[in-house]
Amino acid sequence: MLARSPLRLQLPDPGTTQRLATAFATLFEPGDTLLLEGSVGSGKTAFCRAFIQARLASAGRMEDVPSPTFTLVQTYDDGLCDIWHADLYRLLDPNEALELGLEEAFDDAICLVEWPDRLGDALPRGALHAHLEQGAEDDSRILTLRWDDAKWQKLASATAGLCQTGQIAQVGDD
Ligand SMILES: Nc1ncnc2c1ncn2[C@@H]1O[C@H](COP(=O)(O)OP(=O)(O)OP(=O)(O)O)[C@@H](O)[C@H]1O
Ligand SMILES: [Mg+2]
């Protein structure tokens, strides 16, 4: 069962999304997976790009992070572990994910998965579930986070810290 009281965060502009993704990048460990849902253009790739670039920057690297729209998967190595960035929109069958090697990656890489619904029942256990949606303004988004694995409780503390410094706000706090 996923967390009953999900975290709902306001991301009023792309810079805030980038800051939150950068903060989250420090909290992920090998074997952690983010399943990122949301309609086309909701900001899934923008979030993943900032997350990956932050991890690479920690290793002193700068790389382009293109959307894996056509390749389905892009992989990176941040010196500590592999990072898999997948966009499964075009996946026709969950079995294709096996061919991509995603199952093994779930075990020991950091995986960021856009359109995870394409995996059907083959979702990894213990993943962080995120949903992005359009906010009230053109450039605003609302991010909802849910989890059932207690290890993600650290996100609540991290986001509380960002809320205290005014960098993000919980939905309903304005
Ligand atoms: N607050 C915001 N957070 C993230 N992106 C934003 C925000 N406001 C505007 N944007 C813009 O929305 C667009 C999001 O595009 P992005 O490719 O990340 O979407 P996506 O969810 O990955 O779509 P797709 O389903 O096609 O992969 C970008 O152009 C980004 O600059
Ligand atoms: Mg995308």
Structural description of this entry:
This protein is of the alpha/beta class and 174 residues long. The chain has a single domain (7-158), classed as P-loop containing nucleotide triphosphate hydrolases (Rossmann fold, 3-Layer(aba) Sandwich), CATH 3.40.50.300. It has helices at residues 14-25, 44-58, 95-100, 102-108, 153-164, and strands spanning 7-11, 33-38, 73-77, 82-87, 110-114, 128-134, 141-146, 169-170. Strands 3-4-5-2-6-7-1-8 form an 8-stranded mixed β-sheet, with helices on both faces. The longest helix is centred in the N-terminal third of the chain and has 15 residues, at 44-58. The radius of gyration is 15 Å and the shape is globular. The two termini are 30 Å apart. Magnesium ion binds at residues 44-45, 67, 87, 114.
Index terms:
alpha/beta, binds magnesium ion, Rossmann fold, 5 helices, 174 residues, 8-stranded mixed β-sheet, binds adenosine-5'-triphosphate, single chain
Q: What is the CATH-assigned architecture?
A: 3-Layer(aba) Sandwich
Question: Strand order across the biggest sheet?
Answer: 3-4-5-2-6-7-1-8
Extended strand count = 8
Question: What's the number of helices?
Answer: 5
Gap between N and C termini: 30 Å
How many discrete structural domains?
A: 1
Query: What is the CATH topology assignment?
Result: Rossmann fold
**Helix proportion of residues, in percent?**
25-40%
Radius of gyration: 15 Å
Bound compounds, each kind once, are:
adenosine-5'-triphosphate, magnesium ion
Estimated share of beta-strand residues:
15-25%
Shape field: globular
Q: What's the story with the biggest beta sheet?
A: 8 strands, mixed
- Secondary-structure element pattern, one letter each: EHEHEEHHEEEHE
Can you tell me the CATH superfamily? P-loop containing nucleotide triphosphate hydrolases
Average of pLDDT: 93
